Structure formats: C-alpha cells, structure tokens
Amino acid sequence: MLLFALILAFMSLTATAASTLTDFFLVTTSSPAKFSNIRALPDVNATSLFDPYMFYNSAYFLRLIGPGYGSLPCFSLIDGFLTTDVTGPHGQGKYQYWSHSVSEHLPFWFNDGLVTGGRTLSLENGFLLGVEGDVEGWRVCPGDLEQQVLVWKGNDTGCVQRLPTPTNSEPSDDTSCQTASSKPNATGSNDTAPKEPSTSASTSIASFLADLSWQFLDAFNARDFECLHLLTHFSTTFTASAPGQIPCTSVTELLCNRAALVAKFPDLQLVFLSGNTEVRDETGYAEVYIFTEILGMPVGVRRQVLNVLKWRREERRKWRCVEFTFMARWPVEEGRG
C-alpha cells in the first residue's frame, strides 16, 4: 500500500488532466503503473456497457467482461465526460451515450443525453481515469445479474479496488472497436424469422438473436402458439424454466403452456421495456436479456419480468436457442409506478 500511495503521489505532481481523448478501449487493472503491453497489466479486464433494466431502456452501467468477446465499445473523453455509441434496434443507426456525473457508492453509468455539472472525469498522468484528479476511489463491485460493475467509492461486500485505464491497444487479438449492445424493438411479430447473418461480426449476430428472441416473446401478443417460422431456431435439447414451476423440456410444451395461460387470462399482454445482447462469437455462446412487463394477469396488475434466452452456435454455424428462463420482479397496480 505504501508503494501504491507513493506512485499516486508522484503522479499527482506530474499529471495534467486532458480535456479530450478519442477512440480508446477502457480496461481495469489493480496496478497504478504504466505498462507498454496492456495485456501484461495485473488483473486486467476489458469493460463493456451493460443494461441493468433499472432505467427502462435509457441507461447502461459499465461492467467487466471476460475473454471471448469479438467487439467492445470504443470511448472518447470530452470535457470531463465519457461518450460512446450504442447500436439501435435491429442494428440500425447509432446513438450517442454519455457518462453521468459521478456519485459516491453508486455505479458508474451512461445515459442517452449529456448531463452537465457534478463531478467530472479527468485523465491522470496520461493513462489513468480519475474523478477530478482522484484515481483511488474506483471499485469493482457485484451488481445486478451477477455482473461486476464499476462503482465510485463502492463499499459493499465483495468490492475491490480497480483502476480504469484508457488504451488504444486491443485487449485481445480478435477485438474490434465497435459496440456490441443491441435493443430489440417492440413491434409486432413478423411472419418470417430474420435471416441468419452471413458475417460473424458480433454486432450482426447480436441484432439477429435479439430480433429472434423478441419475436418469440411477442408471439404471446399475436396469440401464435405454433411459431412455425421460429421452430428451426430452437435446439432439440431446449429447456424452459421459471422459479417455482415445473421445467419444460421442449418448445412445443412451452407453447402449450402459453396457450393455457392465455385461456386463463385472456387480457394478457406483453410489453417490451429494455433489452441487451451479449455474444461470445469465439466460444459460440450468446445470451439475450429482455425486460418486459406483463399486463392483465390478472386484470389491473402489472408484473415486471426478466427473460433470458441462451443461444449456442451448432452445426454449420447455425445459432439455436438452448435455454429460456424468466423471473418475475414485482407486481404493481396498473396506473402506479
């Protein structure tokens, strides 16, 4: 700890805060020393945007991500705030997100508009991200969905000190400077499923899987209990489960259960709130997270539900859904938030 403090003290004498730095990856490390090879940093992790489903499609946290990613968000530091692009629904368009002003004990997060004022970010000694000159307050803490998220002065059990470091070096050989997040929209189901992407780019695959996943959920609203245009996208080993319920061992069984549920609650409707897709193209696995609201079960009650669809790349590089889980959050009366 003494050596760590001495290094930081030296940095505070020589550092000059940069107001602008563009097009870099953001990694975390336990060391305040500069390494020419970013992969040689101790405890190094890449970071990516993460939708915690708390702000209804308007905010992202910054979380650690392990090996196997094909693309990462590329950041810029402009006038004390980080900014990055987020891919829009179905991979169409890009939207600029900005870091929110930093607050103690709260996750570091981004929203879709620039928020001025509050504590701003600085670049210390040319390679460490600070908050108005302080680099010691960053922690990585357990967050929603068992993700490790960046928190300013986090003090919860399990938090560890980590230093965010901008770098132009690729954290892995197959990394490209892109945004892998995607948000499916809430339009009605199509009669045909989206076409399998011919490219292996993570952004294309993420949009494709997000679209398929929402079509499968939105079939509830269309009262489609056959989903013939989607069945080939489900594995023969597919399972579905929810806390306190008997698991389904096939898509057909799940669709039959859906029909029975609608027969019991004819006013049932599913509303899309937010979503995020994570693709591990290198290992052939992906997860689609969709946060929805269920209306009319029974009438007058809204239930917020997290839906998780897990996908695996099988023979001939075809992606198939292997597992579906859903977890109800909380019921509230309609008309109340």
UniProtKB/TrEMBL annotation:
The lineage of its organism: Eukaryota, Fungi, Dikarya, Ascomycota, Pezizomycotina. Residues 164-200 have a biased composition (Polar residues). This is SnoaL-like domain-containing protein. Keywords: Signal. Residues 162-200 are annotated as: Disordered. Residues 1-17 form the signal peptide.
